[in-house]
Amino acid sequence: MVKQNIKTALGFVGRFFVRTRRIWAFAFLALVLMFLYMPLIIVFAFSFTTGEIGTWNGFTLDLYLTFFRHEAARTAFLNTFLIAIIAAVIATVIGTMAAVGMFYLRKWRKKAVNTINQIPLTNATVVTGVSIMLLFLSLRFIPFGYVAIIIAHTMMCIPFVVLVVTPRMYQLNPNLLDAGMDLGLGPAKVMFKVLLPQLLPAIFAAFCLAFAISLDDFILTVFIRGEINTISTFIVTHGGYLRSPIQRRAFFRAIASVMFMMTIVAVILVYWYVQRRKRKLAKA
After folding, report:
1. At what angle do helices 62-69 and 71-103 cross, to 10 degrees?
2. Alpha helix (H) ranges present in the chain?
3. What is the pTM of this model?
4. Tell me, what's the pLDDT at 241?
């Protein structure tokens, strides 16, 4: 009798969870998103007040004005933005070419190159940073600073670009290039007039990802920055110029919010461009 009651109870509980699985799934997803984004939302919201987090002293833009009036902070921001743009452009060009070339390799070569491409993604960033620093020191003709940072960020972003563009290559019609060649186009024209337009959404997404990765990097930059500061290194090296810890925390809320907004803008641009391309293809 007891066993029968236990089986009945377990069956009831099981049916309850089956019927409400969507609610539980939504609740779990909401909980995960809350833990991921709530700290960012709180920091962003309290960047518009001068009080500590949890104490609202009224809406103000003083933290942002302080940030952009501070010469070292403004210079670090511009350095971060310019380095990210240049590194993302170079990485996108090289990574796209690599993804196209890898797609037409033989099976075993393709697997080998894919494995090599994934090593930097799994390798510890601090190991990569030390290795690049030692390489530049041994070469000597590459001075620490802008050039070294751009080269390092480009090297770091290329595997991510390949990772984004490669799946799009597999979605294309394999007869597309042959059809272009049959119509009299040369290899270069087929590449620029047939293949690249089909890859544009993936290329744009890869560029935005590379931009965000370069924007966020600290470990590589700190080894080879020389006298140059980006936002991440500025926070570490210039954190003590404000006298009180409260001022430092308030100031850094503005910096974090600026970086967060730049990342959000990049994500929105990717989504808008991909949806726009989808609508164009659907109409065609």
Report:
1. 80
2. 2-19, 21-45, 62-69, 71-103, 107-122, 125-139, 146-171, 176-182, 187-190, 196-216, 219-224, 231-237, 245-283
3. 0.77
4. 52
